Amino acid sequence: MSVQPQVKPPFSRTDTKQSEAESGSYPPVEGFLMALGGHTQGVGRTNEAGSAADFLPEERSLSALKEAAAGCRGCRLWEIGTQTVFGEGTETSRLMLVGEQPGDQEDRAGRPFVGPAGRLLDQALEEAGIDRADTYVTNAVKHFKWQARGKRRIHQKPSWAETAACQPWLEAELQVVQPQVLVLLGAVAAQSLLGRQFRVTQNRRQLVESDLAPAVTATIHPSAILRGDPERRKEELAAFVGDLRFAAALI
């Protein structure tokens, strides 16, 4: 039987602050006070006049974009992030997954979704019958925003201005990959592309009318499962796997 998903009305992006927190493992940070000049509050305030658009290369390929993104200064998050964490996958990937921002382990490794949330995503993809090697994974924001707490780097939600400043990279990735199915993981990713009024919890396992890709859908970020009630983790994971199976059926 063919899948007959419900298509939601289109959404428009609006310049409004939004967030989706992510948790993970936070190993000790050496020299963080020196790196931040002693500041532990208000880390990474964005220069709202900046944008990644100023750093986009003329060549539109994943390799050219990744190389150019390494030198992006479109917002102030580059000052506290170890490195730009660009997307990972091939230009022929039919399924594209977009999260919020890299976490502590992603910031250190320079690769998306390799921390606790990434490992849970890998498990869910496997249970859904999706090979991660066949997907393109990236984030709406390419630098890790964090706040020093003791000797740990604690995830901080990116502001709307920071998300908007980074959006040209995500739009360029979409242009190059041209996925058949786009899956938005969590509120930051979904609202950055579909508008502030979009609610993931109200639109899970639904098709959203959009010109971003032939099929666009949204679900929770895997970090939400890790942050949630441990007694409901198995149930939440099963629902997340179901959302990914819904996306796989659209390919």
Write the layout of secondary structure elements.
Layout: E1 7-8, H1 32-35, H2 62-69, E2 95-99, H3 104-109, H4 116-127, E3 135-139, E4 146-149, E5 152-155, H5 160-177, E6 181-185, H6 187-194, H7 200-203, E7 207-208, E8 215-219, H8 222-227, H9 233-248
Parallel strand pairs: 1-7, 2-3, 2-6, 6-8
Antiparallel strand pairs: 4-5
Give an account of the 3D structure.
This protein has 251 residues and is α/β, with parallel strands linked by helices. It has one domain (7-13, 27-248): Uracil-DNA Glycosylase, subunit E (3-Layer(aba) Sandwich). 33% of the residues lie in helices and 13% in strands. The chain has helices at residues 32-35, 62-69, 104-109, 116-127, 160-177, 187-194, 200-203, 222-227, 233-248; strands at 7-8, 95-99, 135-139, 146-149, 152-155, 181-185, 207-208, 215-219. Strands 3-2-6-8 form a four-stranded parallel sheet, sandwiched between helices. The radius of gyration is 17 Å and the shape is globular. The two termini are 15 Å apart. Mean pLDDT is 84; it is low at 9-48.
List its traits:
Uracil-DNA Glycosylase, subunit E; two-stranded parallel sheet; 4-stranded parallel sheet; single chain; 251 residues; 13% strand; alpha/beta
TL;DR of this structure?
This protein has 251 residues and is of the alpha/beta class. It is built from nine helices and eight strands.
State the oligomer. single chain
Strand order of the largest sheet: 3-2-6-8
> With helices defined by DSSP (H or I, 4 residues minimum), what is the helix count?
9
Order of helices and strands: EHHEHHEEEHEHHEEHH
Number of domains: 1
Q: Label the structural class.
A: alpha/beta
Helicity, as a percent range: 25-40%
Estimate what percentage of residues fall within beta strands. Answer: 5-15%
Q: CATH superfamily name?
A: Uracil-DNA glycosylase-like domain
CATH class: Alpha Beta
Distance between the termini: 15 Å
Instruction: Examine the secondary-structure arrangement and name the CATH architecture.
Output: 3-Layer(aba) Sandwich
Radius of gyration: 17 Å
Shape: globular
CATH topology: Uracil-DNA Glycosylase, subunit E
Average pLDDT reading: 84
Weakly predicted, low-confidence segments: 9-48
Main beta-sheet strand count, sense and barrel state = 4 strands, parallel
Quantity of strands, as a count: 8
